[in-house]
# Entry
Amino acid sequence: MARFEIYVTYRKGIFDPPGATAERALQNLGYAEVEQVKIGKYIQLEVADGTPEARVREMCDRLLANPVIEDYRIETAGEA
Amino acid sequence: MARFEIYVTYRKGIFDPPGATAERALQNLGYAEVEQVKIGKYIQLEVADGTPEARVREMCDRLLANPVIEDYRIETAGEA
# Structure
């Protein structure tokens, strides 16, 4: 089978609630060196051999990411 | 500032509800080539220059990941 890794992040300018919460929580715990935390999704996808990246992109647009508020990056992780 | 990227995934054998849901949903949408979907977290952390990775590991153990059910991997993403 083929493996893809997908990194979903909030688009520039879109508020990132989990990231903002973690950022404040870390600072409250005493980690004053923390400047920014962003939390997105890390998706590991296993598909049948020969599945083209365009097909994975379609899955992202339709279901795995929300193109209105999120960006994503697809990486080929090779055969498994 | 220094940047780290953290990849949080469910530990082997721990049920991954968002991954299982996305897997079934994609198959229902007609993506029969989908074999497995795992959904974890992709954290981008910006900290003050000189922050050692051990300190980031401590933040993961205390707040960013749940060591009971999750594994994580830290990568240095360089200066920003």
